[in-house]
């Protein structure tokens, strides 16, 4: 009967005690406040503390936890001291403390250990306070492709970020600590039965400090999202994220048929673009750019020069989707589709795909492009068609 | 601008000048003009609309409207044998009592908490229809039976992934027109002929036509022309053999005595509930339904809302809400499943009252009584020289075709003469079924006494002989 | 001892206290549970003996496969019990006749005058068959023609059909007409896109899609108006038409609407005006002058026909002269002497409703307009707009609520508010506020899904409510907002004084648990007791 959500063990049905895994990254966000970008690297941390920086993550975590108080039978599982215990106690909880750390000298490895331990304890939600770096650490520990992935059948690892960093590109975060707390509360009460995949992204630190922005897409984590509490008469049935994504895939695949397979399709990374590859029965590189034609894979995980070489011989279209929480369609996570590739293909052959929910999550902000070439950025700016479903589109603003 | 006193309208409380002024002051506006600042001057309508002068007093309004309506003649004043999609049945007083109540009449789209009564009434309606149809899923009412049929075939197309729908020729031309227009983007309709003797769907023609392209075979039972399709099970079998669905349109008031189509293989059943407690209202009492088995692949294709029962946090308390609100369709190409909106909910509630009032025995008795009366009418009319009734040699429910070829008169002429005698004759089928010659569709229900039918026969006899 | 001043105790600081409301709660069983074998609630007319003798056993004429084996398992009750059950259920609703129903934004919950209901129930309409000879239905045909003239004047369009069974049906009919128009010019294949906006009624998109068009939905610009530049980027030789609501569901009138129409016309498309939100602009502005080619109204909204829990309704469509040939058939006309039904319309899109439309709804709408006249209609709109701006002022006084877009500007007949600020502060969501408001005898509608305005709440006062009632509604919202701050748990667990308590939605999405009928419920959840 297909992948109907209801067939899985019901995440939404309260069954006894609820367990919340809490990870606080004590050094997240420390840099920004004192004028340093990002805070990874012990050097930067030391410098920041010398400049009088106070870790933000603790405060943010407490803000979120305040919203979770109403859950009756809740066990908070966390790491010692500044990695979560302090925040839990400050919010009035008595946490179950596991693991061990070197206080004042916590590292990415500690975050990863915490995530793994919580996953093994089968918490209902891993709630972490931090930035992109923290998200990346959580992902590498318990995301797809991690060493914990297999062996835990049927358990969807639900994760949610409390934003506590300066630069947040990943889409795994709530908009602010209070909404993180609200959403976590709904999950723990069994009232948020929806889930979706969200990008984990991070910027290359060294390159960034030299003024080069190079965002990498690391992968996807499952985050909860809120089902409606009440429904109205006038709303038509809502297909849900997964169905919407598949409808988009149908639309794009139909288009390949319509233009007689004359075009190569350069498909960028993203959950929505991945559905297109699925529909074609072609494997999709999780984080890379693949090229297909008429249901056949022409190149996998192609880099710029491979793409340019193909463009010498063939006509092509580019299919991209907004990556990360900022709404970038070029320049964050798909730099292989370089300005020269885009110029060769032409704006009229750029197909942007996105579910309506993602467009709405932009809250009126435009889609963004940052190819590295101002001319190409300007060419792409203005308005662009976005495929949002089967025979459904919008015309949306793009800015650079 | 005239100097007369400003009118205070009974339906517009704040039109009292002092109140209006006070409110304007509170919002800091000089006049209501300010609220229209976004409407460009160029688009502002100058002066007042050219409408008839108002009837400000309720009495004047009543006289005016009643004066116009008085020109109508009713089926209480005339003896009517009209049917063809709208039928004259008795409406129990309790049906009117319930659907007149302001609480039902003026409710709309509240939540399952503050409009619990509406949800329960519609759930009960669906449940009682479920018993009538012997099916577990019934939609809230659609606009009318035409819409129900049109949506049913599109559902079948979505479920099977195919485009072709085979439809029995003995269908109302109007309904076919609707199904064609509504099916335009997705559906290709092919007609299947019928046996001239019996009216029954031509099974051989069906077998020849149905292929792996077919999404559904659609027929009605009883047919638009009134006879019972006695080979429903064979039709379903032929459809299923090729992987098509069997979609059947029914008259719900016949289901006290006729087999529910699901029992002979129907996958989707649809129809119009007007006979279940709605006055004819010049065609304003129509409402449609769609029913299927309780399988995900069907449930997911309903465009309408489906209400289900659920517990609340208080043990023993019933709650209701939307089932499968996110329709994860198996036909993603149409993931926006048609549309949802206002249709005919009050008639659904009324039909529920009707069914609860009639009960099992009532539905059996009314069905059997209708069949007996129409049979009587057919036999008596058939004895008139030059008149054939029924045209089709099959069992009938409440409608039947009467042919007057042998009288040398057209149906129009016959009906004109009947009209002069205070009788509405059956619908002229000349345009829809020219091959039936001068034929009309007569309808007999439980409202017709023996005297009524004898009077019709006398009148007909006078007219044709 | 002096008589106690009860009245005085109903006021605090000169203002009326909030009602100590409790909705009717009958804890009523499902009707099947009231069934007792053998009961009858009505007896049906008996067949005369002579007929019986004449026809014999009619059921025997049916083949066994067509004869129902057992009576349907409907409940068996006596008449007073059926009535009691339904009257109880009727009490468990909120409607215009009961509450200050300004919360159902976009639904235009105005007063449905009882005289109109009475007129619509006249046997002179109720007992009329649609296929009667035209001579015998001149009355209702006259009403329809007169009402059409009224709609023509209100809209500036040239011809109407009253056939569509509600607003969405009207939109679909208009989409069909657009399709037929382009087909008649040989451009059907080329023009396969329809443009609409996110704040127009979702049926504008859904109907277009159902009819086979590709739908392009535009988002608003920063001020909340439909984005003109986006429209310019969206039109092309593939554009079949624009379907737009104005004012949109946010209550904001698009001042550039004429330009929108012009741009689409230049691209060769048609423009359809979804006038679901007409209540604030009757006699103020018209579809005709704005250049629209088609429009549709909702008689159960602006024109006062009661909502009936969700119908019956009528969504009349109006078109320019050039498109009249596509209108559904038959067309109701006056030939100088008589009213007639004209079926000679070869280019018609066909039939969309079995007969000519829902006559009692048309009658009510006609009576409503006739009771007001042009000045009255204008007054209705102006007061509806005044009421809305008055309520806007009162609601914005509540800390934590905002009216996004067009800030500081006036609205037309409704406003989409946002409780985002309050939600951030307290963790209480818009839906929860609405449910707690039900404890005071009112409710509201949030918005279409998915929400573009966060934590939405759409209020439309119409002209039917008094200043006192608007004050009451605002006071209730203010009170609940305060509770969200001081006692959020109370709000989050609402309603408390409604008919039922918080529903557990778990069964609704699980095929093994959902039950759309009582029989499904018994099959899946209860064991069917042989003695039931």
How is the topology of this model organized?
The complex is a heterotrimer of chains A (400), B (465) and C (532).
Chain A: E1 18-24, H1 30-33, H2 42-50, H3 56-66, E2 74-78, H4 85-90, E3 96-97, H5 108-120, E4 125-130, H6 132-142, E5 159-163, H7 177-188, E6 194-203, H8 205-209, E7 215-225, H9 240-258, E8 263-267, H10 271-280, E9 290-293, E10 296-299, H11 304-313, E11 315-320, E12 328-330, H12 339-345, E13 350-353, H13 356-361, E14 367-369, H14 374-380, E15 382-389, E16 392-399
Parallel strand pairs in A: 1-2, 1-4, 2-3, 4-5, 8-11, 11-13, 12-14, 13-15, 14-16
Antiparallel strand pairs in A: 6-7, 8-9, 9-10, 15-16
Chain B: H1 17-26, H2 58-69, E1 79-80, H3 93-100, H4 102-105, H5 116-133, E2 137-138, H6 145-160, E3 164-168, H7 173-183, E4 188-192, H8 203-209, E5 214-221, H9 232-241, E6 245-250, E7 268-272, E8 288-292, H10 296-299, E9 307-311, E10 318-322, H11 345-382, E11 399-403, H12 411-420, E12 423-424, E13 427-428, E14 439-443, H13 450-464
Parallel strand pairs in B: 1-12, 3-4, 3-5, 5-6, 6-7
Antiparallel strand pairs in B: 2-8, 7-8, 9-10, 11-14, 13-14
Helix pairs in contact in B: 3-11, 5-11, 6-7, 11-13
Chain C: E1 11-12, E2 15-16, H1 49-55, H2 79-91, H3 114-120, H4 123-126, H5 138-155, E3 159-161, H6 167-184, E4 193-197, H7 202-210, E5 214-218, H8 228-234, E6 239-245, H9 257-266, E7 270-274, H10 287-290, E8 294-296, E9 317-319, E10 331-334, E11 339-342, H11 359-396, E12 415-418, H12 420-426, H13 430-437, E13 456-459, H14 467-486, H15 488-492, H16 518-524
Parallel strand pairs in C: 4-5, 4-6, 6-7, 7-8
Antiparallel strand pairs in C: 1-2, 3-9, 8-9, 10-11, 12-13
Helix pairs in contact in C: 3-11, 5-11, 6-7, 11-14
